[in-house]
Amino acid sequence: MLSTIWDFLVTLQLFNQSDMKTIVLPVTVFALALASYHSVSRFFLVVFWVWMHLLYFTVTNQTFGTSPEEDAVNKPNRPIPAKRISIDSAITLGWFIAPIDLALSLYTGGAPAGIAICILTSIYCRGGGHSHWLSKNGCCAGFYALFEYGATQIADSSEKLNQNQIGAIIGSALIIFTTIHAQDFRDDEGDALLGRRTFTLSFPVFSRISMPMLLTAWSIALYLFSEANQSVLPALLVIGAVTGIRFLTLKSAKDDRLSYLYYNIWLSMAHVGLSSLNLQRLAAWYQ
Q1: Any idea what DSSP says for residue 228?
Q2: pLDDT, tens digit, 9 for 90 and up, residues 85-97
């Protein structure tokens, strides 16, 4: 009995595993940095809320369309290609998760964001949002913004976020929209076999060149307009430059996986910078 329960929990975690460092970690860090109120109980609520809503997305995404075939090429350790669960059982699991997530959002105070995540999941998976790089990047930016909005509401026990919090979340969405193709380089071979129109396949040269340009530009912007600890911001500049140059010069799938790990470290640090964004300084610069 216990082994069966443990095996089921492992299967659930495998649905989320590749997104733990890209969603759960940066969103949690960002929400706690933005929140003006902190408690241990709220921390665990934030992590659980993010993890459960991510689970609804990953189960839906990994069962829809050609995703099982794609994962068999790019991510064979996921539950469906690894034969830990059938597609039909995973679809049923998704229908069970949806009302649980709704109840959890109502309980924690993250209902608007939770409902919007479910709607955007449908747009991404069933509405063709995943099929073109522009809509895919837009959906990814939307997911991050919604996860961060809901997580910050829960962490802060607040129904309404303040101006600085909203500004930081918008900044995060812009960073994601312009740089999230970092995750596509490692999957180019499988995506090409499946005929997907990712940004890295549509613009193979420019997408590489864009990485050092964009990561450095965003790092400089945060250095200028953030009041984060001065040890964080220089490190952000260095990691952004190193990561961008890696994407430009090291092009094997193995190198791209490691570069993507560096990108996620940079992204987490960028969120620390965003959490201390000085909107007054930014507004003064525009005037």
Answers
A1: S
A2: 999 999 999 999 9
